[in-house]
Amino acid sequence: MKDAQLYTIIALCVYALAMALIGCISYGKSKTLDGFLIGGRNIGAWVTAFAYGTTYFSAVVFVGYAGQHGWNIGVGSIWIGVGNAVLGCLISWLLFANRTRKMTKKLEAKTMPEYFEKRYASKGMKILASIIIFVFLVPYSAAVYKGLGSLFSAVFPGVETWVWMLIIACLTAVYLVAGGYVATAYTDLVQGIIMIVGVVCLVFAVLNHENVGGVAGFMENLRAFESLPNDPNPTTGEQLTNIFGGSSFKFLCVNIMLTSFGTWGLPQMIGKFYAIKDTAAIKRGTVISTLFCVIIGCGAYLVGSTSRLILDGQLPEGGVDAVIPAVLMEVLGGGTLGIILLAVIMILLLSASMSTLEAVVLTSASAVAVDLIPSIRKKETKPETQMLLTRILCLVFVACSFIFATQNIPIIVSLMSFSWGVVSGCFIGPYIWGLFSKKITKVGAYAGMIAGLLTVGGATLVITLTSDFSAAAAKSPEMGVIAMAVSMVVVPVVSLITKNKDTKRVDEIFTCYNEK
Fold it and tell me: Residue 81: which of 307, 260, 327, 250 has the closest Cα?
């Protein structure tokens, strides 16, 4: 254990220095508001592709989703990784990347709320979008801190979890505040490379574990698996090897839709398209980002599906959230090479989480500094003031997330299970229809945003009153999927029965697609 701790500390120090250096180098490119928020719309294919992929996959995917679904579903859970790569990445890039880049450039919009304001000529929609982002994305970052801190505590049992959360918060704050989007994009490139190396090594290690039996023996051994008598979640080898998830087919489909289509409406994901420099970069970025998501997504769920074999069917003390940490310690806990790989994997999980954290924090800070405050002030806010305020708010939100994460506040943890579905459910309809149709009205867009919010809120209220909040939390994936579908339907339907009063302005906006 001491060797593992030493190697992890060395890797962590090298990683921290690299991140701080990138932040300092990027400072010169982030002195304007455009530079700080979207890199001056001049970010290349590789950097944008990796920024998209690393923001998509945080440690929650490995520790939470891959561990839980791999343990309960088996090899069928790999379809979630496939869905994320094809639907959440490839289709998203093909359909939205170029249109988003062109329209946001035409509108001079740097954030999602600003896009709504200028596309639909509605300051109220900008304010509402800003509030939604702040309420549901900031607590999400707190949950990521807490999960990652717990993982590091498994390797360093003598160190309090809050210490690791504080280190993570400080690292994120340094390069984010210094270099803004440019720093986060280039650190994402480094983090993405680490993630690929780590996942490939981890997959190789778990498949070669004696209980798994290599590529050839994996399915055979899993098919022969039998649950222990005291297993709280008993299953069969037939279930674990069913390629379509067996009895969990419906559950599998819901999670594929939530985690894949959800990216179509998340501001921290869409923002990557604002910054990419040209159409050629988008074409290359589409391929690079999709391949990245295939490796990371499918690799994570493949590791999760081996967990029952590696742990001999014994669920760890911490439940499904402790599955992946237990697998790591079992597979990589012995021998010098294994310990070195464990250090690499720890940095992998740190990279995955920090890339998500930086995107969420920057999105939340800009929503308040650039969108919310100027909308409610009577005086015009200068770009320099907005940029300074954004930097300050990045620090504030990092601090708030850290404080929230150190408190055992059930409402924050529960709120996180809704954030993905709520945010995407509110934004997906107004955002997508706004890119493709001139006929979408301000009332239609408003209706779609509110409908998405009420779908999740109303269902949560009903289930909580008839049962309890934990029952509502368990239904959050279904709520999120329904909210996204409702938003996509409500926007065009309401637009059909309302009128656009400024057709000339909308026609002018759509000329952006005729420009190179």
Answer: 260
Beta-strand runs (E) in 234-344: none
pLDDT at 413: 46
Distance (Å, whole) CA 333 – CA 315 = 18
Cα distances (angstroms) measured from residue 479 to each of 347, 422, 455: 34, 8, 7
How far is the C-alpha of 320 from the C-alpha of 325, rounded, in Å? 10
Instruction: Report the alpha-carbon distance of residue 29 to residue 27 in Å, rounded.
Output: 5
| 3-state DSSP percent of the chain in helix, strand and coil, to 5 | 85, 0, 15
Neighbouring residues of 250: CB distance < 8 A, sequence distance ≥ 6: none
Q: Which long-range contacts (CB under 8 A, 24 or more apart) does 373-379 make?
A: 375/117, 375/123, 375/126, 375/127, 375/130, 376/127
Phi, psi of 497 (to 5 degrees): -105, 5
- Paired tokens of 241: 């090897």
pTM of the model: 0.85
CB atoms within 10 A of CB 503: 11
Phi and psi at residue 236, in whole multiples of 5°? -125, 160
Q: Which of 19, 43, 358 is nearest to 182 (CA)?
A: 43
Q: Which residues contact 353 (CB under 8 A, 6 or more apart)?
A: 58, 59, 60, 144, 145, 147, 148, 168
pLDDT digits (tens, 9 = 90+) for 307-364: 889 988 888 876 777 787 788 778 876 666 666 666 777 776 676 666 677 777 778 7
Query: Within a 10 A sphere around the Cβ of 291, how many other Cβ atoms?
Result: 16
Q: Which residues contact 83 (CB under 8 A, 6 or more apart)?
A: 256, 257, 259, 260
Rounded CA gap, 141 and 133, in Å?
12
CA 135 distance to own-chain centroid: 16
User: Which residue reads 């807490």 in tokens?
Assistant: 146
CA dihedral (496, 500, 504, 507) positive or negative = negative
On the CB side of 339, CA atoms within 13 Å amount to 14
Cβ 423 vs Cβ 399: under 8 Å: no
pLDDT of residue 165: 74
Domains of the chain: 2-407 (1.20.1730.10), 410-516 (no CATH)
Q: What torsion do the CA atoms of 513, 370, 264, 277 make, to the nearest 10 degrees?
A: 50
* Each residue's pLDDT tens digit, 470-510: 777 778 788 888 999 999 999 999 999 998 888 899 999 99
Instruction: Output the six-digit token pair for 124.
Output: 């109220």
**Backbone angles phi and psi of 305, in degrees to 5:** -70, -15
Q: Tens digits of per-residue pLDDT, 54-112?
A: 888 876 677 777 888 888 898 999 999 999 999 999 999 999 999 999 999 999 888 88
Q: Which residue has the tokens 């994901």?
A: 269
